[in-house]
Amino acid sequence: MRGTSGNLSVVLSRDPLRLAVTASGHDKGELTPDDVVLVDGAGAAVAGGKPSAEAELHARVAALTGAGAVVHVHTVASVAMGRREPGGIVFRDLEMLKGVGLPAHDVEVTLPVIANSQDMKVLGDRLEAARDPRMPAVVVAGHGLYVWGTDPRRARHHTEVVEWLLELELTGR
């Protein structure tokens, strides 16, 4: 995560839904406990602080997918491929697909690409309509990549795998 770009979240409870989300405008490479905000299922701060503007989308992803953690990164490969393939990015016959729980061969999966919006409800609706349950990620066109997993380690792992797949597509054509 370069500079203050991107954001992270971890689900702390499900009923009610509570997430720890990185605060707005903080360098993600140097996080401290003061750089995290507790938010509710709508992404609103529960006990003060200013969460990422995208906290509502993190909460929506957690509720929709059952994820325990969400990672959002603004990578060159995700932005470029979102522009290049606005209908979705198709992956097939790649060993790296095992990293998101798919077979390496005889399977085709599409990483959804959705149009960006500053309205997190609109963005969440687009994500919900486009997502493929086999792919723990979605690209927001011109913006970046959202990836999730059962816990922070799996979310990070999925982020690394999907980013590798995107880099391959970007450089391999």
Commentary on this structure:
Strand 7 (113-114), helix 3 (120-130) and strand 8 form a beta-alpha-beta unit. The chain is globular. A 7-stranded mixed sheet has the order 3-2-1-4-9-8-7, sandwiched between helices. Strands 5-6 form a two-stranded antiparallel sheet. 30% of the residues lie in helices and 25% in strands. It contains 4 helices and 9 strands; from the N terminus they run E-E-E-H-E-H-E-E-E-H-E-E-H. The chain is an alpha+beta fold and 173 residues long.
Main attributes?
173 residues, alpha+beta, two-stranded antiparallel sheet, 4 helices, 30% helix, zinc, metal-binding, Methylthioribulose-1-phosphate dehydratase
Short structural summary:
The protein is α+β, with helices and mostly antiparallel strands and 173 residues long. The chain has four helices and nine strands; from the N terminus they run E-E-E-H-E-H-E-E-E-H-E-E-H. Helix 1 (55-65) packs parallel to helix 3 (120-130) and helix 2 (76-84) packs across helix 4 (152-172).
Total beta strand runs: 9
Query: Topology as H/E string?
Result: EEEHEHEEEHEEH
Low-confidence runs: none
Report helical residue fraction.
Answer: 25-40%
| Amino- and carboxy-terminal Cα gap | 26 Å
Q: If you average the pLDDT, what whole number results?
A: 93
Strands of the widest sheet, in order across it, are: 3-2-1-4-9-8-7
Number of helices: 4
Question: Helix/strand/pairing class, anyone?
Answer: alpha+beta
- The gyration radius over C-alpha positions equals 15 Å
Strand-residue fraction? 15-25%
Shape: globular
Largest sheet: 7 strands, mixed
